[in-house]
Amino acid sequence: MEKVMVKGTEAIGEAAIRAGCRHFFGYPITPQSELPEYMSKRLPEVDGVFLQTESEVATVNMLYGAACTGTRVMTSTSSPGFSLMMEGVSYMACAQLPAVFVNVVRGGPGLGDIQPAQGDYWQATKGGGHGDYKLIVLAPATVQEAVDLTVLAFDLADKYRTPTLILADGLLGQMMEPVEFPEFRDLSTLPDHSSWAMTGAKGRKPHIITSFDIDPYILEKMNLELVKKYREIEKNEVRWEEFKTEDADIVITAFGTVARIAKSVVEMARKDGLKVGLFRPITVWPFPYEPLKKLAEKVDLFFDVEMNMGQMLEDVKLAIGGEKPVAFYSRMGGVVPTPNEIYEALKKEFGRRE
Amino acid sequence: MRFIFAGFGGQGVMLMGQILAYAGMIEGKNVTWMPSYGPEMRGGTANCTVVVSDEPVASPVVDKAETVVAMNIPSMIKFQNFLVENGYFFLNKSVIDREPDKKEDIKIYKIECNEIADKLGNLKVANMVMLGAVIGATKIVSKESVFKALEKKLTGKKAELIELNKKAIEEGMKKVSEQ
Amino acid sequence: MKKLLYKMPESLSGKEFTYCPGCHHGIVHRLIAEVIDELGIREKTLVVAPIGCSVFAYQFFNMDGTIAAHGRAPAVATGMKRARPDLYVFTYQGDGDLAAIGTAEIMHAANRGEKVTTIFINNAIYGMTGGQMAPTTLLGMKTTTTPYGRDAQKDGYPMHMCEFLKEAKGVAYLARTKVTTPQDVEKTKKAIKKAFLAQVKGIGFGLVEVLSTCPTNWGMDPISAMKWLEENMIPEYPLGVFIDKVGDEK
Ligand SMILES: Cc1ncc(C[n+]2csc(CCOP(=O)(O)OP(=O)(O)O)c2C)c(N)n1
Ligand code: SF4
Ligand SMILES: [Mg+2]
Questions:
Q1: Staple B136 to which of A2, B34, B72, B176, CB 3.0 to 4.6 Å?
Q2: What's the pTM value of the predicted model, to 2 decimals?
Q3: Would you say A97 and A68 are in contact if contact means Cβ atoms under 8 Å apart?
Q4: ipTM
Q5: By residue range, what is the domain housing residue A193?
């Protein structure tokens, strides 16, 4: 396929269509409105359905409904909108409904602003809604990766019957990069959900989909089934990237676009003879605890960089287990740290410890 | 190589950056284009950054640049200190009637983009005059690639403007070869 | 009269409006301020700004103010009023805010006869987020999420909030106006005053829907936008007073 230059938001939309998604429900919110706008134009061309909803509360429940019928479905939103969806996401997780969500994170909390941020990491990885559940959370760093992970998100959602989230930020959403799109998925080859989906009880027992049981023993069983699934996902789906970690004394940990800024920092440091590397979780849930723990055996210092008050930092510390020091640098409110700024902070930290 | 394109909203700085990025892609290079958006844009100045590189692009966010293109005075003031040693500083002389503070160890090109565009018959292509100057001086991509990028980018009704844009690019290139 | 128009109402902060040229948000802000001045209640009035282009309303009014979550202004206003019945509370909301995400809140506030006032700016579009379809977008109208024009089969019909709300027993004043001519401006101001009096007199809920322009997202200059409003919005959204339990001003 020929490469084309596309914006991150539009790349995700096109990738979804190629992955066989023909249903999009969404409510406008900056900085991701280009995605629903793209879908409003593009979906009718492939006989798909685009519906602008009256709210994110309605959106998530429309996803619930479409997913009940075993149909690939997606929405995208930004932080305040994702907060509104939390109740429905919890329902979908419990009802084991596959769907893909995109959260193009902006500055928060509250109304915040419309600049890139990473303050929704906890919401994405630790629950967000009520009850015991997890989402598979994929954090792309390039536009190409956003395409690849969108396709993967649909496949994982179907495979594990679980809502899956693309955790992006405004930078990735607005950025244009060359991408190669995958071929269009033949819709007849999409996973078969006829064993559970609501398609009309013709000649079979009714399929009932709920996130509910009044009997605690039965509900506990449902919980245990979810736990089993999550353990399975933790075993199979951990993804991460390492960059120049083989000989690194210092390893920067970062996710999403911040990891790319950090990559430039690694290059700057290497030029100055400092052995710095980068560890980037691609799945922020399941988090790559084991590989990070292994790195801790040979690394002297970890340097976590995020656009929040230190959310992934907790997972990094959990992985490293107090064996090695973890320093932290952050910007918040939609301020994006620059390579030089991070590098200066890193040098200071390094100097302080020597 | 890192580029910053900055000017008033409406001066076509976003397109300048996109065409350059596209041309880089056509040449098989790694590229990223990133716009400023939000309140900053409302304040009147718009800017975008482009990275063109043989390696995969790491940071799309730049705080240093080999090339800064300023289409107006606020942009010149805001971005002059982003320039690295031996960097290229392109100034739209038609709008910028004063000297930048930063002058040492950099190459300055002053181009009368608006006058040249006006002579070509459309003030709107002032941005392409400047882009011509940029590729002429930095040699980051070939003229042919930029032309191809224009053909990709300007489709539908805008396709009529391709020839004019090409001329503007050539005029810009000519201008720097004279300097 | 003329002179009065050019005096800065005390209820405005004096901060320059940041709305686009030809946008009606500014005109309506001014009318609200004049009404609050005339009623002499500025120091007892709370403003609840929405999320939309008028998210900055709290900066423009010279009174205590907040921003409600998108669509929730009537609930926030209810909380304020129930906590401090001695104060006056008004919400200022766009059509996305009030007629899409906030439909439940406005219906229930109205139906409860909540003693608050709502000024509703219907510009048939989502201004702040860049021109997406609003519930009030006209059929056939192109927006960034109806690139082929609004289609009733797919996108539903334009939403008539006044016509829905007029069934709510708690409503004390309800009107739809416009501000395209000086006479209309005068009428709108009267309507706003009544909607406030409904609360001041403790009768019930008051709402004024003002048909407004958004030249920027309609892709028009201010003059064409006014003309477009007259020719297209008025037939769809007839002006008028739907409910008036306030009676003549005294
Ligand atoms: C929960 C949530 N969803 C979406 C948004 C994004 N958003 C901000 S304003 C707005 C709509 C604005 O339109 P309208 O209410 O008609 O006001 P206008 O700008 O036209 O005056 C939307 C969807 C948000 N801030 N919060
Ligand atoms: S975008 Fe529209 S509603 Fe918003 S300020 Fe401009 S004209 Fe007014
Ligand atoms: Mg509106």
A1: B176
A2: 0.95
A3: yes
A4: 0.92
A5: 4-236
